[in-house]
Amino acid sequence: MRILHVIDSGGFYGAEVVTLNLMEAQEKLGIHPTLLSIGDTGVGPKEIEIEAKKRGLETQILRFRNGLNLKGSMMILNYARKLRSEIIHSHGYKSNILLGIIPRRFRRMPVIATLHGWTSRRFFTKIWVYEWIDALAMKNLDRVVAVSSAVEKNIRMKSVGIHPVVINNGLPRLGFENDSFYRECPEISEKCKGKFKIISIGRLSPEKGFNILIQAMARLVSQGVDASLVLVGDGSERDSLSDLAKKENLSDRVHFIGYRDKAFNLIPYFDVFVLSSYSEGLPITLLEAMQAGVPVVTTSVGEIPEVLGAGQFGTLVATGDPGVLAKALEDVYTNRGGAKLRAIAARDRVLTKYSVEKMASKYFAEYQNLVSRK
Q1: With CB atoms counted within 10 Å of each terminal CB, which end of the chain scores lower, N or C?
Q2: Same structural domain for residues 253 and 152?
Q3: How does pLDDT run along the chain (374 residues), one tens digit per residue?
């Protein structure tokens, strides 16, 4: 079976990691996946393309003008036909929309879309409009997969009459390089030495709630906890978050280290991993932290409460509340033994329930169902 995975990637984050992990697992199942990385004209090599080639995955690159570009839609379809793909697997609203505007009777080839999660928090913003167009476009596709039950129940899904299948994200077993932080960030690791070490990984964008995390950090320090925070990732909020850290007198405690390849390798160095997001599907970074056996404190959004067993395998907090987040971090600090026991149980849970093999097998079943229906 030949599958064409289509994605317009803006970095190498959760959706990109899931896509490449899935492709690797599919090769082991005897499936032949190909990555088609699309983008605007003039865009150079993308991180997902570089990483896919490193992994030895078949990769095709396609550039065309952004927007509702019917010519671009046909270019994707022609690629799929040229590669003799039996199914197109779309990842993200841009490819969903481009494939959704092609009538099914003309397209003929089945298209399955994975909805990794929507991030808009305000009405009538540009991304909010794109997400509604995405929902309408997916109605014209053959199967929609949601990575969490929360995504499945999204009001947009119900409004347009889409009934997604839920397939949770999965991870391969990771081989952590426990000295990675010392090697990559020697100066910062020295500054963190002896402190209560906190890490968070993700795009520096509004929906990730990093401003709440920095405010929680300020409260934690004011309560006498000698803590340090390392933020891994880049994004539009970097300058404003840096300014906030200065305002809270945390410039020597909050460290921005930018995007890092295989950032999961840094996690074992830390005492706690934090997610302060306002919205998530099923975040890969959470699964990575659980595999690392590091205590987790996270907002109760998306599929996270299910992954953490309603708080049995990590601490859940409300969104947008720095006081509650600070208290949860303080609890980990004062009861590190109990937090570590829960983290060990979390590691066992993620290795059994959220494996890449399970994810790939479930997608394979959906592919077979679509092919047989065709």
Answers
A1: C
A2: no
A3: 999 999 999 889 889 999 999 999 999 999 999 999 999 999 999 999 999 999 999 999 999 998 888 999 999 999 999 999 999 999 999 999 999 999 888 888 999 999 987 777 677 787 788 889 999 999 999 999 999 887 888 778 888 889 999 999 999 999 998 789 999 999 999 999 999 999 999 999 999 999 999 999 999 999 999 999 999 999 999 999 999 999 999 999 999 999 998 999 999 999 999 999 999 989 999 999 999 999 999 999 999 999 999 999 999 999 999 999 999 999 999 999 999 999 999 999 999 999 999 999 999 999 999 998 86
Consecutive H or E run containing 243? helix 238-247
Q: Are residues 215 and 300 in the same domain?
A: yes
The CATH number of whichever domain residue 66 belongs to comes to 3.40.50.2000
| Structure token digits, residue 77 | 């379809």
Please give the model's pTM, rounded to 2 decimal places: 0.88
Helix axes 93-100, 126-138, angle to 10 degrees: 50
Q: Into how many domains does the chain fold?
A: 2
C-alpha span between 162 and 152 (Å, rounded)? 9
Domain of residue 211 covers 180-353
Indicate whether 247 and 190 sit together in one domain: yes
- Residue 345 and residue 369 in one domain: no
